[in-house]
Automatic annotation (TrEMBL):
Residues 1-19 form the signal peptide. It comes from the Bacteria. Keywords: Signal. The keyword Signal applies. This is G-D-S-L family lipolytic protein. One of its GO terms (molecular function) is hydrolase activity, acting on ester bonds. The keyword Signal applies.
Amino acid sequence: MKKLYALLFCLGLFLVSCEEDDPIVDNTPPEQEVEYTAGSANFSKYVALGNSLTAGYSDAALFRAGQEASFPVMLASNFSLVGGGEFTVPFMADDLGGATLGGQPILGNRLILDFSSGSPAPVPVEGQGATEITNTLSGPFNNMGVPGAKSYHLLAPGYGNVQGVAQGLANPYFARFASSANATVLGDAAAQGATFFSLWIGNNDVLGFATSGGAGVDQTGNLDPSTYGSADISDPNVVAGSIDAILQTMTANGADGIIANIPDVTSIPFLTTVPHNPVPLDAATADLLNNAYAAYNGGLAQLQALGAISAEEVARRTISFSAGEGNAVVIIDEDLTDLTAFNPAMINMRQATEDDLLVLTSRTFIGTLANPDDPTSINGVAVPLEDKWVLTREEQTMAQNAVVAYNQAIAGLAAQYDLAFVDANALLTTLKETGFTLPDGSVVTAEFGTGGGFSLDGVHPSPRGYAIIANAMIEVVNEKFGSNLPGVNPLDYTGLYIN
């Protein structure tokens, strides 16, 4: 028996030796080529409607490279795998982003990172963009995204009237490719006979309020958008009615489509990057400021004794500085009790808290002088920041309430018109809270300047961010219509333009 075991052992070595000498044969079956299908959808004629998010706007401008990296272009590349046709874009003339009207600059260039100060900071790229608004392009165009458009603007005749651009009565981006002076965005889109469409609109109906620090008015209850200011919050019924009209028109001939809801505009890097307490002070300066605000603080105590304000508001309004880092800026808060009837010097000011959101552009304003001849007139310290620099907790609630109302309407309309629906609000919340892990193990986040998800304006996604959005849209399209489109690789798109 022992000899048998020994023989088997030697035979095993012999077989191993033979296997090592023999050529290795790979019996793994070859990877089969995927056969893509459109499912029940017809992607032969795709038209995209929306605003700057649809156009591919990033880094505070619309420019050719950004347009090429728009999510509709990404969707169209997938649709082409299953019969999708040509997708035309009203390209800007170059990659600068600036534009002129009659030779006069009216649109600024895109932002790039400048390192000349020792720390990177976004600055406009140098040069003058070659895009002239009066040089009307010949359409039609599949990407009907118009930067700056609110929901009701897509239905407004003359929104692309070149003659009205200078007066602020028309949109310069739409003026470049509108079919006529009296055309509507919706009309030009519908005339193309789309078999499939995407709609992402409503963001600008509240975004301007947020990015202006709440300088606008909440127009809830006002159904006349012709009376709205550019920074106002649109009435939810106006937004819902406009979207309903758009969907009714686009689906009239049986087109399928996808619609996205509105992200929380208070969570974008434009409002989450600058801290509420960015002021460093030495002991002497802190003492100087505390002495300067002593009369104001004392006035608060006196008015509390008179019953004009509560102890809680006195505590909220009392201003105090200390030596070192982390001093909060002084701001104007319109929601505080108006005390100027008692004393004109008792204006509505207080120091910011972590509940306040400072706009991104405030970082280069805080610390500047309100009066160049007065070295003590430091903005945000000795001189309170105006309302436009800060979105207070009360103003945030107004914006968030609008987003909730808009999104309830959009979800209902998506079901009513049997559309694919993407929850862009949840998507961008994930981007902010946890980020998205890419195939190479890197993580895309909403961190300003370094996260890779947002561009340098702090409002619009980067090309890589748009790719994540495109994949979310393709996923719900596949689920809704039974297609198996592959999506795009976010690593093929930049997270930050270097120049």
